[in-house]
Specification:
The chain is α/β, with parallel strands linked by helices and 280 residues long. 41% of the residues lie in helices and 19% in strands. The structure holds iron/sulfur cluster.
C-alpha cells in the first residue's frame, strides 16, 4: 500500500517513565531479577519485554509476604503504608516515584496537615490516586465525574487537586461546577505538563494527517485523555494497543498517516506499528 507514515516526535515515554524503566533495566542487567510493585508502565507489551529480562510484577498482598528483598516503586508513587511495610519487612525499596508525583503528594500532605478539606480529581483505584489519598489517612474525597459530587456532603471550602494525568478542560470544569454550587475552591492545577502540553501539540499533529493511529495500553489514563484529543481533532483516529490490531481497511492508497501515543507508549512500539502499516 502506498501511504506516507510519520511518528509524532513528541509522543512516547515521559521523563518519569524513562527514569523508572532505566532504573529497572540497570538492576536487571546486573542481577537478572527485580520485584516491581504493580505494572511498571500501563503498557502490556513493554511490561512483557521487561518480564522477559527478569522483572517480576507483584501486588500489595504479595509484598506483605516478602522479606529481605528489593522492590521497585514505579513512577505512580505509593502511599505511606507501603514505606512502613517495607521497613517492617526489611524490604529495600528502589524508589522510582516520579518527582512530579512526589511533589504533589507533599502538597496534599501539607494541606491535610493544615486541616483543609481535600478533593482529588482522579480515577478511583488508580495507583497514583491511592498514593495521594494515602497522604490524608484516606480522608480526601476522590471525584471522577460531576455526578459523584452529589454522593458527598461537601464542605463550604475545599482544596482541589488533580491526578497528574487528567484532562485540563475537565479539571477546570470541575472547579467551575464547585464554585457554582457556592463552594470556595482553593484551586491547584497539579496536572503534569508532560501530558497537558502534549494535548496542545497533539491537536496540531492530529489535524495534519488523513488518518491517525493512536498507540497505548488499555489501562493508560493519559492514553485515554490523549486519544480523545486526537479523535476530537481528527475523527479518523484509530486506537491500537499493538501492531496486530492494525486493519488494512482503515487506510486508502496515497493517504498520510500519523502515529502517536501516550506517555507510557514505548518508541519501539510506535515503530512496529509504522512498519506494520508500511507492509500492508
Ligand atoms: S506523566 Fe508526568 S507525573 Fe506521570 S510519570 Fe510522567 S512525568 Fe511523571
Amino acid at each position: 500500500m502506498n501511504v506516507k507514515v510519520e511518528i509524532d516526535a513528541n509522543s512516547g515515554f515521559c521523563f518519569g517513565v524513562v527514569f523508572a524503566i532505566q532504573m529497572a533495566e540497570d538492576i536487571l542487567t546486573e542481577e537478572g531479577h527485580l520485584y516491581c510493585l504493580g505494572d511498571i508502565v500501563h503498557n502490556d507489551e513493554e511490561v512483557a519485554r521487561l518480564r522477559a529480562k527478569g522483572l517480576e510484577i507483584i501486588d500489595h498482598d504479595k509484598l506483605k509476604t516478602l522479606h529481605n528483598v528489593r522492590v521497585l516503586i514505579r513512577a505512580h508513587g505509593e502511599p505511606p503504608e507501603t514505606y512502613k511495610l517495607a521497613l517492617d519487612n526489611h524490604i529495600e525499596l528502589v524508589d522510582a516515584s516520579c518527582p512530579v508525583v512526589l511533589k504533589l503528594q507533599l502538597r496534599v500532605r501539607e494541606a491535610y496537615n493544615s486541616d483543609e478539606k481535600i478533593i482529588i480529581y482522579g480515577k478511583h483505584g488508580h495507583a497514583e490516586v491511592k498514593g495521594l489519598v494515602g497522604q490524608t489517612r484516606g480522608e480526601a474525597i476522590v471525584v471522577e465525574s460531576f455526578e459523584e459530587l452529589d454522593q458527598h456532603e461537601l464542605p463550604l471550602k475545599v482544596k482541589l487537586f488533580s491526578q497528574t494525568t487528567k484532562r485540563t478542560k475537565n479539571l477546570y470544569a470541575l472547579k467551575d461546577k464547585l464554585e457554582k454550587e457556592g463552594i470556595e475552591v482553593d484551586f491547584n492545577d497539579t496536572l503534569c505538563r508532560q501530558v497537558s502540553n502534549r494535548d496542545i501539540q497533539l491537536r496540531e499533529f492530529a489535524r495534519r494527517f488523513d488518518k491517525i493511529v493512536f498507540v497505548a495500553g488499555l489501562k493508560s489514563s493519559n492514553g485515554k485523555v490523549l486519544f480523545d484529543v486526537c479523535k476530537e481533532n481528527n475523527p479518523n483516529t484509530f486506537f491500537v494497543s499493538s501492531k496486530n490490531e492494525i486493519i488494512k481497511e482503515w487506510f486508502n492508497e496515497n493517504e498520510t498517516i500519523g502515529i502517536c501515543g501516550a506517555t507510557s507508549t514505548p518508541q519501539w512500539q510506535m515503530e512496529e506499528v509504522r512498519n506494520a502499516i508500511l507492509s500492508l
